[in-house]
Structure formats: structure tokens, C-alpha cells
Task: structure prediction
Amino acid sequence: MPSRIFLIDDDAKLAMLLRAYFSRFDLELESALEGDTGLRKMASFEPDLVILDVMLPGRDGFELCREIRKTSSVPIIMLTARGDVTDRVVGLEVGADDYVPKPFEPRELVARIQTILRRVQRSSTASGVAEHGPLRLDFDRREAQLNGDLLDLTAMEFNLLQLLAGEPGRVYTRDEILSELRGIEPNFFSRSVDINISRLRQKLDDDPTNPRFIRTIRGAGYVFLKGQGEGSRDPGSEDVPPSNTTIVL
Result:
């Protein structure tokens, strides 16, 4: 069965070309030219992945991404003709999983899609439940609970948490995290890891200066703590800006 891809982009010609191209890779494309129509069509199409153009008439791609994230963790790729670093930061902060600047090679977009779909499929095959103190991960349901409360995690955030918690005590570098979670272009905007870590910490109620779960190792990367509740500050740790902080690169 082909994977279902949903595109919201006001370029009808692009949608037509991508539909024909995607079919060569067993990808079924449905599309809409503007946001409100797209959200209605998505509900019945039930896509495996969504592609959002940032520059849309009416509600832009960022606003649509926020709207989708209220009810769904479906993977989202953002498209933009501007390619600004600020756009990338905003896209990641509102819950996008990847970012492709226009113009792009269709094969590159397909590669990004296939990488994300493989990652989601690989994650979905993980089974069982893992508990780390007050944190409970249900791999079958792809859910995380903290003190019994269900956490509202995006697909990227759950995958990141699953990766780190899968090997407590192991330090993952930013490039390793990007490689594991994206699988393509490891130098692409490495600060996106910091942004996703910051968002994840906020939802875990995890103070970076006194962490229970995720510690930053200065000059190395991130580690999921083996023991919960100790929370002592490590000399090699460093603060990570909260998710609402503007990062200047």
C-alpha cells in the first residue's frame, strides 16, 4: 500500500508535478491550495506525512502547523522560498519535523520523506513499556506519561525521547541525534537539536540546571540520566535556552 502524503501549497503546477513524481516511489499525493480547505481534506485523507508551504494565502504554514499539532503528531515537512534561519527556528518550534527550502530537487524531497517514514515505522515496531522514575514510555501507543499525566509530544519529540531513553547514560552528540532522527544531511541546522531538546525539557518539566532526565554535556551533547530524582548539577553541563528564547546564530 502506498504511503499517503498531503501537500498544502498554493502552486497548483507544483502539486501536479509532485503527484506524478511521487507515484514512481510508491507515494500517493493529495493536495490543497489553501489552509482551511487543506485541514478539511486532511481529516478524511488521513496522511502518513504532511508537507506545508510557509507562504500561503490566508493562514500561513506556521499557523497550520500549530493547528495540526493540537490534534495530531503526523510528521510535517515545511517548504519555504525564503530559507531564512528565522523561518527554520519558527518551523521547528511549532512542531515541524523537517525543513526544505525552495527551490528543491524532487528527489531530495522524496529522500526526506522516505527517511521520516522509515523512522516512524522503525519507532512503531518498538513494543512494550519503559519506566524511568515518574516517566512512563509506551512504545506501542507512542505515548509518554509523567506522574500519570499524558504528555502532548510531537512525533519528533517522542522519537528524540525514545532515542535518548533507549540508552540511559550514553552521550549523544548533535550530529548523532540528527543522523538518527533525520538520516540525511547531518550538518543541516544542528541547532534544531537544541530547540527540540528545549521543547522536550519544557514538557518534561525538566530544569536544565538541575535535571531529572536530560543533561547537557558541554562540548559533547546530551545524555539521559540513569537514575531519576538525584538532579545534581554536573560541572560539565550547561544551560539550554527555553523554547521561547530567540536563538541568534
Observations:
- The helical segments are 12-22, 35-45, 61-69, 85-93, 106-125, 155-166, 174-181, 191-204.
